[in-house]
Amino acid sequence: xxxxxxxxxxYVKELKEKAGVTADLDLLTKVTIGCGPSIYNRDAxxxxxxxxxxxxxxxxxxxxxxxxxxxxxxxDEAIAEVIEQLGKSNRNKYRACFYYLLCVKFDxxxxxxx
Length: 114
Hints:
Strand content: under 5%
CATH topology: Recoverin, domain 1
CATH architecture: Orthogonal Bundle
Low-confidence stretches: none
Number of helices: 5
CATH class: Mainly Alpha
CATH superfamily: Jann4075-like
Number of strands: 0
């Protein structure tokens, strides 16, 4: 298995254990690939639920630019829900899991079909 495959297996486990979600492996793989090399960097591979600047980046770069959503309070609410879903005290909120949950929440899997 490649390093990426190992990480995807970790993400499947995290989603099941922390969020109670059985991941769509195909979509999770596409989201993980979309994260690019950040998944291999310890700091960049996670999302800090308490860093306002990082959450703004998730909102602007992922939700608005990547998924094509309009800026609204619903985006902030969804980010807060995902933080809660993955566990506020969970220090390892993996970026790929975070993005996967947001993608599913907004039913935007079609973005990854291109």
